């Protein structure tokens, strides 16, 4: 077994990874295989360090005493040499000139050191910037130790500066002012360079540039394929529709006008001064954006408008008759919106760009979203599209499918299957709008930019793919018994309960961890100041909200029967989507929380499905 230098429990000085600063730590353990020490900082953070990154406390104390004891002798020596009467005048002048040059060099060194200190101070983590610049522990005691170490390093230069003060060998005021301006410019240029480099997206998702380029075409093609399949008598996935509809039949100006009317009507409801205004989570620069919470009011106003149209005998099943044209119109609008978003993002400041969409590659940034929170005045485009046009439109489409089923099959009442699908999905949408404030803590708002991925997803994928079960039932009615309907209802309620209670625990804990109502929740502290829940639903599996989502998705598809797999596409897609998100969350959390996340994974081994995955 190799010799180890430091024993368990020994208090030493450990270098924080990625910096030159040392903090007081305690050795927790030593791994004989990796030759790494597990050390614990005063704020509870645990990290694995190499032996070369650990030093004993005595070495710092020795250096401090050595520099302080040698300084007076250097001062007395320089004073005695400068006042020596035995030196000729010419020699004194040459010595004075050389001394002045030497002191100027030292002065420049001190200024450059101060620049480095200022840069380190700029990247010191605080409550507002720990997510983006997580470079040092949050403990204030650790910062005191770093100041001592830096003072030891700068001690000789500080002594020389005192000598300069004693002899009054200072540059002229103009030169001094120029040096200060130069130093400030150098500081901010260095800060800007480091910040720009650190904000670049280094790890690409979705297959990188090639993958995102293919998805821009593959996603619309998938939507159109699914809708064409639902129109066929035999909607088997391998029974490709033939012949394909003519291109001119997929576009109708009137349909596009109706879509624009719908979009801007929801925008009008969004701008109404009703509902409370809340602040979102802090951005990387510490700023908090304000959001008006009135999505549920917009839903009520939309329901009143639809009810008025039905009262005046408006044929809502017009949506069913022109469903493909509406999907094409929405896809065209989302593409135009994405192009606008990318063009405007080119002028956005660096701190307003999305962490995941700032790679420097056009296709990738266009797809994932280059700007984090694009706004026109106070109108937040991403937040608006996230819940309003697509999600409320999903409910309107389902209602149109219900009415179309009654008209096509000459029914006085909709089928039990159609009622279940409409009711389950209506509950989901109403819940999202009622708990609208919770979306402000999701990765869509805090991390992902607004580009083609979210624009197409919000305006096309959600309303036209999520309504696939209702669209399927119009052309392929399925009869189910009341006991089967009751069982499916219970399954949906179980999924909804898991989904809602898990999200409520997470959102309440994120907003106010010190809330007395949450005192029963246990968590693992992290270096960022946040905690990882290990009780409640989050102690059962790592992503209980995803588990509830999948159970509900299954309940939405079961009323369609088992004749074809097409209605279950949503379940398959949802599982794939959530597994991808889960993998992304795992990677993100591992980078962000380090050893705390590893401890959490050991405590909660299952990701989505208990005892399975």
Automatic annotation (TrEMBL):
Annotated Gene Ontology cellular component terms: endoplasmic reticulum membrane; nuclear inner membrane
EC number: 1.3.1.70
Pathway membership, UniProt: Steroid biosynthesis; cholesterol biosynthesis
Transmembrane segments: 206-228, 253-272, 293-312, 324-343, 454-474, 480-499, 520-541, 561-580
Stretch list, region Disordered: 53-108
Keywords associated with the record: Cholesterol biosynthesis, Cholesterol metabolism, Cytoplasm, DNA-binding, Endoplasmic reticulum, Lipid biosynthesis, Lipid metabolism, Membrane, Nucleus, Oxidoreductase, Phosphoprotein, Receptor, Steroid biosynthesis, Steroid metabolism, Sterol biosynthesis, Sterol metabolism, Transmembrane, Transmembrane helix
Statement: the UniProt record of this protein carries the keyword Nucleotide-binding: no
Protein name: Delta(14)-sterol reductase LBR
Organism: Calonectris borealis (Cory's shearwater)
Lineage of origin: Eukaryota, Metazoa, Chordata, Craniata, Vertebrata
């Amino acid at each position: 077994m190799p010799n180890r230098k430091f024993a368990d429990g020994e208090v030493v000085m450990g270098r924080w990874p990625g910096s030159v600063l040392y903090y007081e730590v305690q050795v927790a353990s030593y791994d004989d295989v990796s030759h790494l020490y597990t050390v614990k900082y005063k704020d509870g953070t645990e990290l694995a360090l190499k032996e070369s990154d650990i030093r004993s406390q005595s070495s710092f104390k020795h250096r401090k005493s050595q520099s302080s004891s040698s300084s007076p002798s250097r001062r007395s020596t320089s004073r005695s040499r400068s006042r020596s009467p035995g030196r000729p005048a010419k020699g004194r002048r040459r010595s004075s000139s050389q001394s002045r040059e030497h002191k100027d060099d030292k002065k420049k060194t001190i200024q450059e050191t101060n620049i480095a200190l200022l840069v380190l101070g700029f990247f010191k983590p605080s409550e507002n910037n720990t997510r983006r610049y997580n470079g040092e522990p949050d403990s204030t005691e650790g910062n005191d130790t770093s100041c001592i170490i830096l003072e030891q390093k700068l001690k000789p230069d500080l002594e020389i500066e005192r000598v300069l003060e004693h002899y009054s060998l200072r540059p002229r005021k103009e030169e001094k002012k120029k040096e200060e301006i130069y130093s400030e410019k150098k500081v901010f240029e260095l800060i800007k360079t480091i910040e720009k480099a650190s904000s670049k997206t280094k790890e690409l998702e979705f297959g990188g540039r090639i993958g995102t380029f293919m998805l821009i075409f593959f996603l619309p093609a998938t939507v159109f394929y699914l809708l064409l399949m639902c129109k066929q008598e035999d909607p088997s996935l391998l029974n490709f529709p033939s012949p394909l509809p003519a291109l001119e039949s997929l576009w109708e100006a009137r349909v596009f006008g109706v879509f624009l009317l719908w979009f801007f009507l929801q925008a009008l409801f969004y701008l109404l001064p009703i509902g409370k205004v809340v602040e979102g989570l802090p951005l990387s620069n510490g700023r908090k954006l304000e959001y008006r919470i009135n999505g549920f009011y917009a839903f009520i106003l939309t329901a009143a408008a639809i009810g008025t149209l039905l009262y005046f005998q408006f044929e809502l099943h017009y949506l069913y008759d022109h469903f493909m044209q509406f999907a094409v119109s929405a896809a065209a609008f989302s593409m135009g919106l994405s192009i606008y978003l990318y063009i405007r993002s080119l002028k956005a400041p660096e701190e307003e760009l999305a962490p995941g969409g700032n790679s420097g590659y056009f296709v990738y940034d266009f797809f994932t979203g280059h700007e984090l929170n694009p706004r026109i005045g106070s109108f937040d485009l991403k937040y608006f599209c996230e819940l309003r046009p697509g999600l409320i439109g999903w409910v309107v489409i389902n209602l149109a499918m219900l009415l179309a089923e009654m008209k096509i099959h000459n029914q006085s009442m909709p089928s039990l299957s159609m009622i279940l699908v409409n009711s389950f999905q209506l509950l989901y949408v109403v819940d999202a709008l009622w708990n609208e404030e919770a979306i402000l803590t999701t990765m869509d708002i805090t991390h992902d930019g607004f580009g083609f991925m979210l624009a197409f997803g919000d305006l096309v994928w959600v309303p036209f793919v999520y309504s696939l079960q209702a669209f399927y039932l119009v052309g392929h009615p399925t009869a189910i018994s009341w006991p089967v309907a009751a069982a499916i209802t219970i399954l949906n309620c179980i999924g909804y309960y898991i989904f809602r209670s898990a999200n409520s625990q997470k959102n309440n804990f994120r907003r106010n961890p010190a809330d007395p109502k949450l005192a029963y929740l246990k968590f693992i502290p992290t270096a960022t100041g946040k905690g990882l829940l290990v009780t409640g639903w989050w102690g059962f599996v790592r992503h209980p909200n995803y588990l509830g989502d999948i159970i509900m998705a299954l309940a939405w598809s079961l009323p369609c029967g088992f004749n074809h797999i097409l209605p279950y596409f949503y379940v398959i897609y949802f599982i794939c989507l959530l597994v991808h998100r889960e993998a992304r969350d795992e990677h993100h959390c591992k980078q962000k929380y380090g050893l705390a996340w590893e401890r959490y994974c050991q405590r909660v081994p299952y990701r989505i499905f208990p005892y399975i995955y």
